[in-house]
Amino acid sequence: MRTFFKKFKDGFSKTSQNIWQTSRGLLTGRKLDADSIEELEEALYSADFGVETTTEIIEEIQKAVKKERDLRGQDVAAIGSEILKRVLRGSEGKIEPAAEKPTVICLIGVNGSGKTTTCAKLAHRLTERGNSVIMGACDTFRAAANEQIRSWSERLDIDLVASHHGADAAAVAFDTWQAGKNRGKDYILLDTAGRLHTKSNLMEELAKIKRVLQKQDPEAPHYSLLVADGSLGSNSIEQAKVFHKSFGLDGIVVTKLDGTSRGGALVGIYRELQLPIFYLGLGEEPEDLQPYTVDDYVDAIFGTEAAN
């Protein structure tokens, strides 16, 4: 089994089980017929793969049935995997260090998406790989956010710059950049306010953070990553569109996938926005933030383990 694949398999178990259990009988090698194809179609919609992707998979299966009438569940898995891998080609994002330290990463998103937790988990992941990291608590809008990120910084032993509730978020970003630069940190991670995308004043605050950073380094932030709640399914797409238009996103981190059966939403997000997916949140522990790969994602849902 590939490294970390078990994390993906466990994380997407609800989505995978929903597909195979709804398509009852395919799991045990039942021959495909009109009823089982209809059940599979329903399951793919339920998993939030969307009209376009679901239609492609079902049409490809129907073509295959015409050619080979003995088609079974294992064959469905192979067809589904092939189509998803084709659709998701180019969707993998990867953090690369900037030419000059520090590399600045902004985490953006609405309240409840898991943004603060993701910031801490990403910091942990980077430090585990030998990098020095400092976090900035730029979510000064919500008092609990400071407490949450302070708790994470103490638990993971990661430097943190924070201020009081209601402080200027851009000033915190500036202080974090200065501290990171002076201490020779490899990465600066900024946890921004969990802004509702309908509030223009909060969007302006984000823009101000960006302007302050670019006065220090014209390339900063090097990565602006939207943290999207995977349990919201395709509803995440509308949020992403607004943030991308207002701030300019470099990619997406999808969280809370271990608790949802709507893991197909990743496909719709990528098809709609053509933004790379960097990481997936597959559990509560720091190590449960995993780099996204097409093969691990697709095989966790449509792999041979699911079909046998």
Overview of this structure, please?
The structure is a single chain. The protein has 308 residues and is an alpha/beta fold. It has 2 domains: 5-91 and 301-307, SRP54, nucleotide-binding domain (Four Helix Bundle (Hemerythrin (Met), subunit A)), CATH 1.20.120; 103-292, Rossmann fold (3-Layer(aba) Sandwich). Helices cover 51% and strands 13% of the residues. The protein contains 13 helices and 8 strands. An 8-stranded mixed sheet has the order 3-2-4-1-5-6-7-8, with helices on both faces. α7 (143-156) links the parallel β2 (133-138) and β3. The protein is elongated, with a radius of gyration of 21 Å. The mean pLDDT is 85.
Question: Portion of residues in helices?
Answer: 40-55%
Secondary structure tally, helices: 13
Query: In the CATH hierarchy, what is the class of the largest domain?
Result: Alpha Beta
Secondary-structure-derived class: alpha/beta
Kindly state the number of beta strands: 8
Oligomer: single chain
CATH fold label of the largest domain: Rossmann fold
List the secondary-structure elements in sequence, H or E.
HHHHHEHEHEHEHEHEHEEHH
CATH architecture of the largest domain: 3-Layer(aba) Sandwich
What are the low-pLDDT stretches, counting only 5+ consecutive residues below 50?
Answer: none
